[in-house]
Amino acid sequence: MTYTRRMVNLKNVTSDGVGTAGLDWPNALEQHASRLEAARDAILQRHASGQDPYLGWIDLPDGEVLGEVQALAAQYAGEFDDLVVLGIGGSSLGGLTVLTALQHPYHNLMRERPALRVHFIDNVDGDVITGLLEVLDPARTLVNVISKSGTTTETMAAYLTCKAWLQQHVGEGYARQIIATTDPQKGILRPLAQREGYATLPVPPNVGGRFSVLSAVGLLPAALGGVDVEALLRGARRANEAFRAGAHDNAILQTALVNWLAGEAGRNILVFMPYSTRLRYLSDWFAQLWAESLGKHKPGGGHTGTTPVKAVGTTDQHSQVQLYREGPSDKLVVFVRVDAPDRDARIPNAEPNEPEMNYLADAPYGRLMNAELVATAHALAQAGQMNYTLSLERIDAEQLGHLLQFLMLQTAVVGELLGINAFDQPGVELGKVLTYALMGRPGFDQQREELRAAGVQVD
Ligand SMILES: O=P(O)(O)OC[C@H]1O[C@H](O)[C@H](O)[C@@H](O)[C@@H]1O
């Protein structure tokens, strides 16, 4: 992925559709260029001060933890077949995105696998957790429990299940098969891991979960799954470098502007739609990044945030696009295009006597995919529905690393334009606390009484 205008096709931004959203491109860029650069500079200055409690993710591409991750991965490779990752939200979606994009699409079904199979447990669904353990070989399974805070209920429940399973089946040696990735100081998991003798990796205190994909959180599962993690970081470094360019040559700032203006113009929904099955979890990862970063109380009253919708092309073209074209003009649609698939897969001319199907004969799948994307983007623009396209040359570790960092930087800039803290998530906390109260965790008696008084059944 080169960091040029080519990567971001802002062509449709000039369409009538965008005009109706009050976005007049490139005049909007002229008008807001200095504001964008000021937002970027404010982020970089806070980061350079070394005092900011949230911006550690900007340094992750420099790979401080890379050596440790690679050493651990090398130590375990060959000895194990499966890795079970226990985590939720930012402690799961990054790794899932990277592995789904970069492993063989059917890696888990291959007879001879070049790397471990990686399974993500990110819910308290006992059927799924115990169902997975039923089919894994405990002697050849590693468990990576990941929690920035070291306390998250879902992850702790899965950890207890996996530890008990390993203890039961492999006995004393179980501790060798558990790796804990967590905050260096805070939470229950760190002291517990030390007591048990688990290998540990850090989540830097100044890196929030949804910004942690390029820390040990995403890197260890990726490395064990055979991903070129150095290339992933290299691509992210390119995004960091390109972030410093002036607004006219800076796709991160430009797309941040389009998103911000769309929101200001009442386009309250952001549809994120990669045209690639391999990138389907990028939509999930991005949805958390966007929603938790930008859905906030405004400092002076009111609310901010556009609602992310996860989609994948072409699949959701056949379930959602009707609404996006003829429904209300309350959306911005972001497409992700892959110029060249890895395989030169073509559609065979298997029905030479069917003239109606001849247009498909010998067509590359990649051409069909991108024709569908262009057709949809055009159809939306024609109906006044705002959209733009991010383009990758191909799906490889370097381009994906670039795109992930691009999207994190873009989100940070939108947060700055909105005048909010894009790096906390106070709105999620109450639900966690009330869950503790309902489950009878010590120290939450008062909340338990409040729930009872509000008519909630607590026993
Ligand atoms: O990594 P953890 O501390 O376990 O947190 C996992 C997730 O839990 C929370 O509910 C937060 O809202 C997310 O931002 C976070 O990624």
From TrEMBL:
One of its GO terms (cellular component) is cytosol. One of its GO terms (molecular function) is carbohydrate derivative binding. Its EC number is 5.3.1.9. It catalyses: alpha-D-glucose 6-phosphate = beta-D-fructose 6-phosphate. The active site is at residues 292, 318, 432. Pfam families: PGI. Keywords: Cytoplasm, Gluconeogenesis, Glycolysis, Isomerase. CDD domains: SIS_PGI_1, SIS_PGI_2. GO terms for biological process: gluconeogenesis; glucose 6-phosphate metabolic process; glycolytic process. It is found in: Cytoplasm. InterPro entries: G6P_Isomerase, G6P_Isomerase_C, Phosphoglucose_isomerase_CS, SIS_dom_sf, SIS_PGI_1, SIS_PGI_2. Pathway: Carbohydrate biosynthesis; gluconeogenesis; Carbohydrate degradation; glycolysis; D-glyceraldehyde 3-phosphate and glycerone phosphate from D-glucose: step 2/4. Gene3D superfamilies: 1.10.1390.10, Glucose-6-phosphate isomerase like protein, domain 1 (3.40.50.10490). Belongs to the GPI family. Catalyzes the reversible isomerization of glucose-6-phosphate to fructose-6-phosphate. This is Glucose-6-phosphate isomerase. It comes from Deinococcus maricopensis (strain DSM 21211 / LMG 22137 / NRRL B-23946 / LB-34). The gene is pgi.
